[in-house]
Every structure is written in structure tokens, then in C-alpha cells.
Specification:
The protein has one domain: Rossmann fold (3-Layer(aba) Sandwich), CATH 3.40.50.970. Helix content is 33%, strand content 17%. The chain is built from eleven helices and nine strands. Helix 1 packs across helix 6 and helix 5 packs antiparallel against helix 9. The protein is globular. It binds iron/sulfur cluster. The site of iron/sulfur cluster has 11 residues, from loops. Iron/sulfur cluster (SF4) binds next to loops.
Length: 317
């Protein structure tokens, strides 16, 4: 027919997914909340990559941002506080064919989930992690979080917090086997999109720190960060995260940073007077625990059963 050879195969995708295919419900975050921008950019990325919703999983813990899976028409797990990482690691280990995303907040990740966070970095399983950091507990209405800066006035610190905050970038870069660490901000959607895309394309644990505005409980901090052009610094490098020239021009300050240089990345992360946007560090050769699981060590089912039987026999009475 039409002059085509009968054995010619045209391999078209069975369905083209639109943004609507990844969207579900109406996001119940406050108007102006930075979470909306993260949701929009993530859905946009899934469309660009044409990820199958039936093979995509969003895992979260507890907090405002952790409502994220409710708004994705994919598989999702809105779980226990601080336990997004163990769930995501379990999913990825047993189902390496799935695309796994983790959405966590500053309280969820850096407080109750800190132990799980550290070990998930080290295990370096292939997943895209977004820490939406607004430096406050929003869901429970204004208590300081582990990332709240000194002087933050809240319901638990009416005179202002006095303990120096956890720096999520510095912490992640300090863990052995960290393989991808980047930073972006909710008010720069073009930069955020490229950052999420780079994180998704990295084969390993991609840690993306998103500076997220909470206009309800951190209004002045968000305004200051989003409008003070002296604070934001765009990290440029041919192997980094690149935005269009028009977007790059909006940054008053730029610096060249080689994302293979871990020492330089750690030094930048310690400079809390500035906010560095882009890729701090990437190591494409870091070992991945999900690969170890995916290969199942090369054993057949029978061989695994034989090993288990041998172990059980040791305890026979
Ligand atoms: Fe967003 Fe803050 Fe509202 Fe929570 S309280 S939904 S973080 S604006």
C-alpha cells in the first residue's frame, strides 16, 4: 500500500501526552505560593520527556509542598513525615524501570527526615529530588524550621531564632557519594525548568534545592530574595545548567564554576551572603545502589532460593 514495503515498521508512540495528562485536581496552595511554579515546571518536563504516567511515581512526606503527588496524574505516595526517601528508595530498588521523583520540604527533609536524607544521598539511586525550602513550617502555621535563618520570628521563636540553620546544599555536598547538587528559585521559571531537566537527565540521586517563597509566613524574606539582584549569582559553565541569553542577562552577577570541582562547590555553598543559581556539582560515575538491585547480582530465582535455603538451614533445630 502506498508503495511501502510490507515489512516496513513505523514505530509511533501509542499516545502523545499533554500537560493535562499529568495534571489532577486544583492545587490548594495559597495564591502566590512558590509550590505552584514547581508543579507547573515539573508537569512541563514530564510532557517534554513524554513520561508514561503509569510508569512515573511521585513520593512525598508531610508539609505544604508534600501535597504535590495529589496534583500529579501519575502514581504517587503522600506518606509519613520525613519518610519520603525510604519509600522512594524502596520503589526504585524493586522497580528500576520507573521514573521516581521525591518532593520534600525543609522540615520534612532537614528535620525529621534528616537521617533518611543522608543515606539516600549516599545510596545514589536514580531519582529526581526537589527540596522546596521556604524556611518555615507553613502547614502548621509558622514555626521555625531547621533552615530558618537566625532572627526568624515565629510562633516558637517570638524573639527570633538563635541557632544557625542547616544549609541543605552544604550538607548534601558533605555526604559521601553525592552525585548531583543544584539550586534554583521559584520566581525564575526558565532557570527552574532547566534545573529540573538536568536533574532528571542525571543518572543518580539528583538533589535540587528550590528556594520557595511562602507569602503567608515568610513574605519579606521572599520579596528580598526575589528582588535583590545583588544576592543572586548565576553559575556558568559549559557542563553546568544553561539558560537562554535573555534569562542569563537578568542576573547582575555571574561566575564561572566547574561542576566537577567538589572543593569549589563546597566553598560556594558555605557563602551564605550570596545565592548561587545552577549546578554546584555532578559526578556521573558515582556508584548507584539501584543498579546493584536491578542486576539482582546476576542470580537466577533458583540460585537465590538455594542461597536462602542454605542460610535458613544454618538455623535449623
Ligand atoms: Fe505555600 Fe506558605 Fe501557603 Fe504553605 S502556607 S501553601 S508554603 S504560601
Amino acid at each position: 500500500m502506498y508503495g511501502l514495503k510490507s515489512d516496513l515498521v513505523c514505530d509511533l508512540p501509542s499516545k502523545h501526552f499533554s500537560v493535562e495528562d499529568y495534571s489532577k485536581g486544583v492545587a490548594r496552595w495559597c495564591p502566590g505560593c512558590g509550590d505552584h511554579a514547581v508543579l507547573n515546571n515539573t508537569q512541563k518536563l514530564l510532557k517534554e520527556k513524554q513520561l508514561d504516567p503509569a510508569k512515573t511515581v511521585f513520593v512525598s512526606g508531610i508539609g505544604c509542598s508534600s501535597r504535590f503527588p495529589h496534583y500529579m496524574d501519575t502514581y504517587g505516595f503522600h506518606g509519613l513525615h520525613g519518610r519520603a526517601f525510604p519509600v522512594a528508595c524502596g520503589v526504585k530498588f524493586r522497580r528500576p524501570d520507573l521514573d521516581v521523583f521525591v518532593i520534600t520540604g525543609d522540615g520534612d527533609c532537614c528535620s525529621i527526615g534528616a537521617g533518611a536524607w543522608i543515606h539516600a544521598i549516599r545510596y545514589n539511586m536514580n531519582m529526581t529530588v526537589m527540596l522546596l525550602n521556604n524556611e518555615i513550617y507553613g502547614l502548621t502555621k509558622k514555626q521555625i524550621s531547621p533552615t530558618s535563618r537566625i532572627g526568624t520570628v515565629s510562633n516558637t521563636t517570638p524573639e527570633g531564632s538563635i541557632i544557625p540553620p542547616i544549609n541543605p546544599i552544604q550538607t548534601t555536598l558533605g555526604v559521601s557519594n553525592a552525585s548531583f547538587v543544584a539550586q534554583t528559585a521559584d520566581w525564575n521559571p526558565a532557570h527552574m525548568y532547566e534545573t529540573i531537566k538536568a536533574g532528571f537527565e542525571h543518572k543518580g540521586f539528583s538533589f535540587i534545592h528550590v528556594i520557595q517563597r511562602c507569602p503567608i509566613f515568610q513574605l519579606s524574606l521572599g520579596k528580598e530574595l526575589a528582588t535583590n539582584k545583588d544576592v543572586m549569582h548565576y553559575m556558568e559553565h559549559e557542563d553546568g545548567i544553561t539558560v537562554s541569553e535573555d534569562i542569563a542577562k537578568t542576573f547582575k552577577h555571574k561566575l564561572s564554576h566547574d561542576p566537577t570541582d567538589l572543593s569549589a562547590a563546597r566553598k560556594l555553598a558555605m557563602d551564605t551572603d550570596k545565592v548561587f543559581m545552577g549546578l554546584f556539582y555532578r559526578d556521573e560515575n558515582a556508584p548507584r545502589y539501584d543498579e546493584y538491585g536491578a542486576s539482582n547480582l546476576g542470580y537466577t530465582i533458583e540460585q537465590k532460593e538455594a542461597v536462602l535455603d542454605a542460610e535458613f538451614d544454618k538455623h535449623a533445630i
